[in-house]
Specification:
Length: 366
Amino acid sequence: MAITTAPVPASPVSEEAAVRPGALGRIRHWISEIRRLPLFPVTMLLVFLLIPAVFAELIAPHNPRRGDLDDRLVPPAWSSDVVSVRTVVERVNRDNRQNEIKLSDAERTVRIGDASVVGKAAGEAPILGDQIQIVVKPGGQGKYLLGTDKNGMDIFSRIVHGARLALVVSMMAIFVSGLIGTVLGILAGFYGGWVDTVVMRLVDMSLSISLILVALVLAATLGPRIENVLIVVCLFLWSRYARLIRGETLALKTQDFVARARVAGSSEIRIMVRHIFPNLVNTIIVLATLQLGFVILLEAGLSFLGAGIPRPNPAWGVMVADGRELIIDSWWVSFFPGLAILFTVLSVNLLGDWLRDRLDPKQRNV
């Protein structure tokens, strides 16, 4: 006779305890994904673009659109005074003008505080034969970290607010051009025929347009505006999305899951939205990341030529253009905005390459 035992009831487990392992697993997964991020591009992107764009009002110490003409062309804060030592003489020799100074000129210079006599108290009048130190070029000031431009505006504050301007313009342009290119690319690849022909001919026309010429025409007719940059970038970038998305759609529509969706009675719109588009998201993200650096560089170039964002807006390209005539004596006016463009575009491109290798299964297998 077989002996049966009653099943032992399972001990009650709270819902919180049942969910906790899964939540911990997700947290660990997120932490591992964050650790896999490339350190250099992410750090540079945070320092030069994201953090300044979000916290511009908190970081910038001055108004980026207002300056003080009394503080124009102030060098960076760490720069020291440029001093020239000259001998006080009664009459300056033409061949030695760099090392000598007339007595009357020396007295006036000491009186106004631009020079001091070596070995004497401050403000004491010089005599013939004395050595005086003349401040040829004043050094930096603590309130202007990266110096000022020719209008007395703080360069650091303008770079910080310029990061927000570059990010907003680039994101808007990429969103609009990506939306147009993605929709037209899916339609061309899915339907084919005359739809594909019309879209591809529009792509060819877009790629044949001279970008700089269109920007200059818009600037001459409408004046330099932010809208001009958006129009030019959208006219130029949507075709890149359309070509790539069309090729991906041509490959996806022949897959078995699309055929099963047709057999199940799904409409064409539903197939494109629910089955094809989700498989294009990785491609769109990678392309948008790679295009972000290109758009920032393009916006800076158009602003540099006077066909983009107008003054006194703190656009990086405008700042570089303002300092091109002062590059010898006031190098910091254009150097620091150019450095911000360099590191921002470089970090975005490196991050885009990493995303491509990360999100593309073929690249991961290699």
